[in-house]
Amino acid sequence: MLAGIILAAGEGTRMKSRTPKVLHCLCGKELLRYPVELLGRAGVDRIVVVVSPANQDAVKELLGDTVEYAVQPAMTGTAGAVKAAAGILKGQAQQILVIGGDSPLVTDESVLRLIGGHQEEGRQMSILSGIVEGSRGMGRISRDQGSQQNVLGIVEAVDDTERDGQPVEVNSGVYCFEAEWLWENLAKVDAGSGRESYLTDLAAVAAETGGSVAALPSNDPDEVLGVNNRVELARLEDIQRRRIREHWMLEGVTISDPSSVMIDAGVTIGQDTVLLPNTMLLGNTSIGSGCEVGPGSVVKDSSVGDNCRVTSSALEEAVMEAGVDIGPFSHLRPGAYLESGVHIGNYVEVKESRFAAGAVMGHFGYVGDASIGANVNMGAGTVTCNYDGKDKLRSVVERDAFIGCDTMLVAPVTIGEGAVTGAGAVITKDVPPARLAVGVPAKIVDR
Asked: In this structure, are 283 and 201 located in the same domain?
């Protein structure tokens, strides 16, 4: 069995934040979720997240019962963190995969290659490494100078100044261990003059005792990068956003100005959709096929169906079925739902309201807490007066009704099927089906 340990107990003091480092977001997803999901896709049978007493509640709130937890009571280093998981995993797995909770760029391909090589060769320790131009303070892989280039250990950059200024192989902090060997040799890692002990020292332990240890360079050196501060967080987010854009372009999405488009990790996009400049797709958003989004649109936690157009508009927690167009400069707030064929023009705000198929609101206005029937025309300047100072109240406009320009619908009120309101009407009472209401306050008159 293969088990995984995710190291998430670090204090992250360089982030200068009240939020634990591993809960900061990168491309709309908490850093910690990246390794958790990665290990799940890699087929890891049990995942243990090592937390600190200070962050355990926040981490458990994020991940729930999808993983197991071990508490590292004091900051005793990465070796101490793995020891904290021993009570759960000792004797329960043949191999142990270890990864940091702040390593969001590691790919499935590299982890599967690391695991496969480790198991096939029967190694005691395998390390995912990367060749970088500047080590940025990361530990460096030390190899012998013979033909085999065997790994001798991992050394700190300050102790390896001879290789400064040239490409160097560095440690990613991703390891695969033979489990029994790991538990036996953790005790050999010396905390030295400090109170922290590090997993990196196990590479030298393996080499000195005749164990099999190997470092496998990643095909993409960006994978070795981790997050220690907000500058590095921004740098990694830029890399990940580029990866995301390239993924969707290869899947059939057109992005006319990639550097100006932001797509979060949880977004899905259909083929032949076009993303125009300065567009942001955030959170758990889905965009169908054949759509055009932008320029300057922001879509967050929303669902957009096939063949829709979102022009210079904002959506949040909203739904657009197929064949809907909106904008420019309109806003769908949480609870907005537009059925197939709805047209929303410019400067329209919709909140907690449903527009049935074929309904139209072409210009200016606010619709909140309302049900708009099929094929209704909502005239320019229409406003639902949904708040009486205490409660939010609903308006209902039944199918085929025609709402004249500048109509005020003072909720709660119902406009019957096929009814008409005159321009500037203030509707304070229900309008029966197929009748005409005009005036302030509106009265029913013959058509």
From this structure: no
CA dihedral (196, 198, 204, 206) positive or negative: positive
Cis peptide before 441 (omega within 30 of 0): yes
What percent of the chain clears pLDDT 90, i.e. is strictly above it? 85
384 domain residue, yes or no: yes
Domain, as residue range, for 283: 252-445
Using CA atoms, how far apart are residues 427 and 447, in angstroms rounded to an integer? 17
CATH number at residue 77: 3.90.550.10
Work out whether strand 314-316 and strand 331-332 pair parallel, antiparallel, or are unpaired: parallel
Q: Are 137 and 275 within one domain?
A: no
Phi, psi for 87 (deg, rounded to 5):
-60, -25
Q: pLDDT tens for residues 234-270?
A: 999 999 999 999 999 999 999 999 999 999 999 999 9
Same domain membership, residue 256 and residue 219: no
Give the mean pLDDT of 295-301.
98
277, 136: one domain: no
In the predicted model, what is the mean pLDDT of residues 10-25? 93
Burial pattern 31-48, b for ≥16 Cβ within 10 A else e, equals: bbbbbbebbeebebebbb
Task: Give 23's pLDDT tier (boundaries 50, 70, 90).
Answer: very high
How many domains is the chain partitioned into structurally?
Answer: 2
**Beta bridge mates, 408:** 383, 426
pLDDT at 188: 85
On the question of pLDDT at 147 being above 90, the answer is no
Tell me which of 321-325, 332-336, 441-445 is least confident.
Answer: 441-445
CATH label of the domain that carries residue 433: 2.160.10.10
Q: Where do the H-state alpha helices sit in 92-229?
A: 108-121, 179-185, 201-208
Query: Among 204, 224, 244, which residue terminates a domain?
Result: 224
Residue 164 CA to residue 70 CA, distance in Å, equals: 38
Residue 24: active-site member = no
DSSP secondary structure code for residue 22 in this structure: G
Q: In sequence order, which residues have a C-beta less than 8 Å from that of residue 194 and are 6 or more positions away?
A: none
Whether the CB-CB separation of 249 and 39 falls below 8 Å is answered with: no
Regarding whether 258 and 355 lie in a shared domain, the answer is yes
Q: What's the pLDDT band for 148 if we cut at 50, 70, 90?
A: low
